[in-house]
Predict the structure.
Amino acid sequence: MLVKQDVAYDRPLEPSFDSNGPKHVAIIMDGNGRWAQARGRPRLYGHHAGARRVREMVENCPRLGIRYLTIFAFSTENWKRTQTEVTGLMDLFRRYITHEMRALNDNNVKVLFVGDRVRLDPKLVALMAELEALTTNNNGVHLTIALNYGGRDEVARATRKLAEDVASNRLDPQDVDETTLARYLDTNILPDPDLVIRTSGEARISNFLLWQSAYSEYEFIDTLWPDFSVDELERLCRSFFFRKRRFGGAIA
Ligand code: IPE
Ligand code: IPE
Ligand code: MG
């Protein structure tokens, strides 16, 4: 279980792991459909199994030193799927939020949704806002759920807002730099991800956190998302510890 106090983890963090492990882990949770197909079941069966994996990941974040967990639930391109799958996924998101709301809050998790809400069902949007409002003052794990999210769409929406501010003289074009633009992104309160994990063997980013992952470390693993375990997350966090991040600097 997550605990209210940031430091009271069920197992002490190794000092080196605590200081050098990824603080922000972002996951492209892929492979639900193939997982279901391998069992002769409909794709939605895989999505339900996938959704059940999330709680355990969130619960183990404090122990692994992960302060921010961001998960890709539905992309701006996923509307291309059959109506049955899209409707089933939207129902799943509604049920997930309704069922998890209390436990997330009790566990001091702060939830944020990123992505464009305009195309989503108003009932779902209301639930998302309710969960965000309920958990807004929590200071435990910061869970960000990317729903109807696309990196290009996010940058386009940010640019539109920025252009509106320029047009109404609230922003001087001379002041537009990377920091200013980042403030208009959905992720404006988050640090950039340190580690991006994609399950299911695909080595692509599929429009996820394009701006924010400029210097993220990547892990592409074969496991299908419903089979992904906390042990595997821990292994990836540990191997992150041995990576040498240079951010463009010279090798020391
Ligand atoms: C990821 O699993 C979940 C969503 C994109 C909503 P997929 O549904 O993409 O599963 P595969 O890639 O078809 O196996
Ligand atoms: C990325 O997976 C989106 C999510 C995990 C929500 P996709 O399955 O949609 O990506 P592609 O189509 O294989 O690139
Ligand atoms: Mg997929």
